[in-house]
Write a structure and sequence with these properties.
globular; 11 helices; about 40% helix; alpha/beta
């Protein structure tokens, strides 16, 4: 089985996978153009509207967070083939009319290379700190309404929508996206996410399941897709990893340590409800063997986001990963740029 391989940008990752103050616009450009040259399928960008709470506790200096949609607009002009995925934007923070304009414009300017990855966001307390005007909203209902509203804006000449959290009438907003449909990927592991995905999504983003429970979730998603659409409609199963790769295990471990300085001591987070595997550290052979298990579980796209203290370190790992891991796992053929 073949699988697509992607990588991520540190646009909002200072203090977690990269040192505070290290990420620059030049880093974002270098990694993007090198990813296209090396044959990666897409570039993933995440979103925080303010300093992530765990980072704020750990470091005295603030991280730099680059808006994913604005950053994609810049990087799309420097590339021709590679796709861009928001993984993820917090959909309830974005009014559908404004987000429609941004997404449709990006899709048109990039010639159809955008995937909109969406999620519910972090804690409810953090959401209320940014959107306290909403009181105690049902964020799941907001997700449902916002997705439906976006689809209406993307497909109707004059769009109307009426819900609890968003209402508009006869909105004419063009250009519409180049892609039909513009892919929406959704993150989350609960029933509501899977039902929403089955109704109106093109891909699921998983952040942590081990292969065996992941296989069960994939079967659940595909069953809901059949129920919602009357057939086994196409559905991408994507898996994100934070990766530190080296020719030796010690080299990989040292790279991860150098990428995230200790900072101030903070209490460890509570253990997850079930075992998770968000991080892979090791040699090409070790990573290849583990990733093959995820492909066997049903994953169709793997995003490797590299720990690195600088852009050069990220590129070295990207080259090693493309040279030794992708072929060993079974990558979809992509033509590297000259």
């Amino acid at each position: 089985m073949t699988v697509k391989f992607s990588t991520g940008l540190p646009n909002c990752r200072e203090g977690r996978q990269n040192p505070i103050g290290a990420v620059t616009p030049a880093w974002l450009r270098t990694v993007t153009t090198e990813a296209e040259r090396l044959g990666y399928y897409s570039i993933w960008l995440n979103e925080f509207l303010q300093t992530e709470p765990g980072v704020a506790l750990k470091y005295d200096q603030p991280p730099s967070y680059y808006d994913p949609l604005v950053t994609i607009g810049h990087l799309a002009a420097l590339t021709k083939r590679i796709r861009f995925v928001t993984s993820t934007i917090v959909l309830p923070h974005h009014h559908p009319i404004l987000l429609n304009r941004q997404v449709a414009t990006l899709d048109a300017l990039s010639n159809g290379r955008l995937t909109l990855g969406i999620g519910l966001g972090g804690s409810a307390d953090e959401f209320r700190s940014l959107r306290g005007d909403l009181g105690s909203p049902n964020r799941g209902q907001m997700m449902d309404e916002f997705v439906d509203a976006l689809r209406a804006l993307w497909t109707q000449r004059r769009a109307s929508f009426s819900g609890q959290y968003v209402k508009f009438e006869n909105v004419e907003a063009h250009p519409q996206p180049v892609q039909d449909p513009l892919p929406i990927f959704m993150a989350g592991e609960v029933e509501g996410v899977f039902r929403r995905l089955a109704r109106s999504g093109q891909g699921w983003i998983d952040y942590g399941f081990h292969p065996e429970p992941l296989k069960e979730k994939v079967a659940q998603v595909r069953r809901y897709v059949r129920e919602a659409r009357g057939a086994d409609a196409p559905m991408e199963i994507t898996r994100q990893f934070y990766v530190s790769l080296g020719q030796t295990r010690s080299e990989a471990e040292a790279n991860r340590a150098a990428s995230v300085p200790a900072g101030n001591p903070v209490p460890p987070p509570p253990p997850p409800a079930h075992p998770m595997e968000p991080v892979l550290v090791g040699t090409p052979a070790e990573l290849s063997a583990r990733l093959r298990e995820y492909v066997d579980a049903g994953v169709t796209e793997i995003c490797a986001i590299f720990y690195s203290p600088d852009a050069a370190g990220a590129v070295r790992q990207m080259e090693l990963f493309a040279r030794e891991v992708m072929p060993a796992v079974g990558a979809v053929s992509a033509t590297p740029s000259a």
